[in-house]
Amino acid sequence: MTAPVHYVGKLLCLSLFIIPSPLVEAKKVSHSEISTTCSYYHAEAAGNKTFARSARSKAVTARLAAAQRAAARKAELKMISLEANILFAEMQLADSGLDEKVLEYALMGYHRLLKKHTLHNTDILTICDFSQSSSLKRMYVIDMRTRQLLYRNYVAHGISSGGEFANSFSNAPESHKSSLGFYVTRNTYYGENGLSLRIDGMDRGFNSLAGERNIVIHGAPYVSERILHKYGVMGTTFGCPAIPEELTDQLIPLLKDGSCFFIYYPSKRYLKNSSVLNG
Known about the structure:
The chain is 43% helix and 17% strand. It is of the alpha+beta class.
């Protein structure tokens, strides 16, 4: 049976005005949640922007610091190169066999150790140029204060480093090889080779075991022109940079107590990885 039309109309009107309360509550909650969610995402977006700005700022600061370090190093290298050029001319080293670039490396290490307050006898810089034949006077003792070449004399290398020319180097105990790099001289003592001078290796991985290996500066009768003339080759050591016996009483007191002592060879591995030359 069909309801009368006027009755149906009344029902429709009632349905329009009587909205279930759960729907109203749901609508209110939904608006509140949306508002809260929007606030959260706005805050998160602001936080992300702040974080991004902070990250960018840190990256810019890091790049600026790296650029400043590179500029400072470039300026330092330029100054040391200029100093080497002037010293080379003043000491008239052109005919000495010592290359100006070797002097530059020596000065670089000297200044690096000076900055670290490692050197106490700051007047003396010694260079042993092991790219030269052992039959040449390849040890150079420089007075940095008076800017004079005080000594140029023979110096021996390790027996396992080579014959006339040294070409193999090691930091290993019992290797009987010379070790490249920068050393700082220490105290003197009297041993089986007479007056001797202890030295500490400053280049990690290259000469840092000098103390353990008993690498010292000492005089030796087989480092002399007499031996050179008799055998045609200079004597060798177990790794120590030995000097002519007749010079020990002059040289060792001069070098002791914290001077810079450098053994050089054009090793790409050393020049690239030296902890002293490369900071």
